[in-house]
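Subject: Interface between my chains keeps coming out wrong

I've been trying for a while to get a sensible model of this assembly. When I model each chain on its own everything looks fine, but I need the whole thing in one frame so I can look at the contacts. Pasting all components below, labels as-is. Any help appreciated, I'm running out of ideas.
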Amino acid sequence: MKNNSHYFYLNGDIVPEAQAQLHVSDLGLLRGYGIFDFFRAVDGRPIFMEDHLDRFEHSARKLFLDIPVTRQQLREAILTLIEHNAEPLLGLKMILTGGYSPDGFAPTTPNLFIIAKPFQFASAQGLKLLLVEHLREMSDVKTLNYLQPIWQIPAMRQAGCQDVLYHHEGRLSELSRSNLFLVKNETIITPNTDILFGVTRKHTLALARQHFQVEERPVALDELWTADEVFTTGSTKRIIPITEVNGQAFTSSKVISHLQALFLSHEQQS
Amino acid sequence: MKNNSHYFYLNGDIVPEAQAQLHVSDLGLLRGYGIFDFFRAVDGRPIFMEDHLDRFEHSARKLFLDIPVTRQQLREAILTLIEHNAEPLLGLKMILTGGYSPDGFAPTTPNLFIIAKPFQFASAQGLKLLLVEHLREMSDVKTLNYLQPIWQIPAMRQAGCQDVLYHHEGRLSELSRSNLFLVKNETIITPNTDILFGVTRKHTLALARQHFQVEERPVALDELWTADEVFTTGSTKRIIPITEVNGQAFTSSKVISHLQALFLSHEQQS
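Reply #2:
Try treating it as a single job with all components included. I did that and got this:
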């Protein structure tokens, strides 16, 4: 590895970052038709990789896309990429698209590539959020469609927020790239409708159930305002507090601190 | 032009089709953040190009994307492409994306490219449609997001349909890539909510107003079933009949034939 450049995977080959190009007829580019997943390797060790491979396969199936390699081949490509990119914190993004489409509409043999780049954890200080009325299309599939949150970037900057919080018809769902949790009277509450089922969410819930009451259910927007603590979980976040939503502050973090300690220990043993 | 290969435009250059590649960090590819427009050149003459440039600029503004060339430069690039691609029916697709994003989320300097390929008009026999409950995100912007209709391709094939017809909360909106019109008692009715405002739609409405009563308004789904004639308008369709929706046939085409003749004459004089 020289000059800080990295190696990516592209349709069967490990290539220098600069050579990772696709023809413009790709259906992910032309029509947003594709799926992805993202996970991290810490000091060369992939974190919860099998969970992410499970979800990647789920997303592909939902969009009728065939992953062009076996799971074992994909696993090996990932491990090779980790070897080629010596970073203490490496983010791995696997993308599968509808392929090079002759008519620019019907999917064909998918393109599969993996981007490997260093990443930073989101600030442990916590996030300020902007409420946005929005229902994600095919919410249980990790599609390429991020039109809404990227379009909200100027509004977020103006409000001093780092992400959006989606609600629809009076119900809370999720942030743009991570899941939502409320704490009320030491009960941990998280939406289970209109969301992407996060891998960090899954592990957090399993840990939380050993120490707290847990409610996985539809959550009304109104419940947010009376929550004792609010937090989010995601692969580049682990567990971090939400400190503000639309200007209302959430300050307590007793349960969050407990869960953060449990999670770190669990991740190190995984 | 050799071996049936074509020339595309890519960020300021005219390049052979095979060289039209983008790095995988493009935000159109990774996050579906981008817009496009499509029009055609018939025997080397671009059809309604200024209307399409207007809409392309509108879409770019709505997504806070700066087109990296002037309108005159874009026009000249298009005319050069038409010269380089000697096809009787040439489709021109201009795409503008959020650019190569270092963090894979925030837009940067946009990528602009134009795909130039021969196209075929949709069959004048008309289309069979499958009703789909769906509300397009940012419906007045020609975004890259076609997740829904591409996902419906297997269902369409099974039903012998060529496209979907969207409805939401009891209202009709549009097909996946063209606009909807109903004819009832020689009045021409077309939705004006939750739609992309088509260029062919605009010219069709202007012609229709000279010969028929026209109603541009919200249209209830129920109005579909009692319509005398149903048709769609689009750049690769001009005006073509809808012959069936979810199995119900529409046969009359008196008004459609009249409009088709008016449109062809208007297009030739444009």
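Reply #3:
Confirming on my end. The helical segments of chain B are 27-31, 49-62, 71-84, 147-151, 153-159, 199-208, 221-225, 254-269.
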